[in-house]
Amino acid sequence: MFRKLYLVYGLLILGTTAFAQYRGWSMTPMNQLKNVPNSVRDNPGSYRSVYGFYHHYTGGK
Hints:
Order of helices and strands: H
Structural class: mainly alpha
Shape: elongated
Strand content: under 5%
Number of helices: 1
Radius of gyration: 25 Å
Distance between the termini: 79 Å
């Protein structure tokens, strides 16, 4: 008896979450950026780790 109830409850929860995912519903509000740069070079305020503690010039041959 309880096994069937748990099965129905689980299928109901899975169906509801699948439908919510399909519709794009979320429990938390999301901030979406409208103008996202295509690359790191298009975004001058981004963090570039390669310019940190690495010297680019290492000498000649």
